[in-house]
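To: structure subgroup
Subject: Chain for Friday's discussion

All,

I'm putting the inputs and outputs inline so they're searchable in the archive.
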Amino acid sequence: MALKHLTLGAEIDAIQSFYWPQRGSDNDYDIMLDRLMESFIDNANDDDDDDDEGGKFLLTLGSFELIGLNINKLIRGPLSLLDFSELTSLSLEDCEDVEDFFTVVQNANNKQGVETQSLLRLRSFHLRHYSISQATNIRALLLAFLTSIPGLTNLSILLQANERPQDFRDRNFGNVLLTHGKSLRTLLWEERIGCRESYVERLNATFPSPEGLIEIAQSCNNLVELSIPIDWRIFSSTNVPLNHVRARTALQSLTQLQTLNIRNMPSFDPTAMRLPVDRAFKGFVDSAIAALIISRHVNDSMPLDTLALGAMTYRDVRNGLGLMNIHEKDLYEFLRPHIYAVDRRYQFEGKPQPLAILREVGTYEKTEAAGHCVEVLKPYWLG
């Protein structure tokens, strides 16, 4: 049976550098990785010797996942042995020199003499990368790469920059929407400077401007799942600027949307709030439902059945790894993803009144088990 799915690497170095940077790199792990690469190449060469046609051995994979690896080391190993033409799913997480991957793909295209059509046939692409800077220019390379391949079905991008990320209305991002918008069913895109460290909503994430939200909704009108930061003023019921109203109307036009993940929590003052935190969350969710569903006829609105607040992190995946004190635990509980079911069975004064019912916190397992769409909830930040 041919190998169709391959995952290489682990998050050991990435986790250590994120939570315990003073420890430095794990040399034993680096040595083990080098030996793994050497063994991989040797085994491939052995198979190549047995090739009746005498051609170069190539891995024909359906999905390929790289985690915490150095792309430069892989160029002489697995990447040189990969037949990109059959690849439908690709995931790159916390890899060094990830910009070199885009170069490898472009070179593969050039060797095939492909000028107007990409060698890649990807349907799903996921990237998580830290320490973006203007010097590395990874964002520009990423956008160029995305506009060079055919329409994706699933796109998931998590970028952490060293400086303020660009606005979603950047022209090159607009080109990505034009390239993939009609084919996309799931879209996750978040760019930030660093992780949130207080109850006050910092300017560490880039919201789509109202005009950017309109562009996303109009370009990607077949979305089933959407996960992005959203300016909470969009959901306000009073003194709403006209461009915010237009953005809200654009979101309402996503008539296939079943799961919406608002990745940024609103600002919150636990000392001033007399209500329990869970009641405050209920207020946040109710304002979003009122703006997106109740404000227009329920039967003529998106089929939204899952509304999630917040973004998954490694601590959620590992049940609170690395928490040090009570304050940090309280903030962690506030920032954990809160996943709500949107129940449309209820009425108020004879009119449909969808209600938000808390389904789970910090995990999507119950939501997935119930058959709801959760693909945009699965990717996570390290912190």
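Points worth raising on Friday:
The mean pLDDT is 79.
The longest helix spans residues 27-49.

D.
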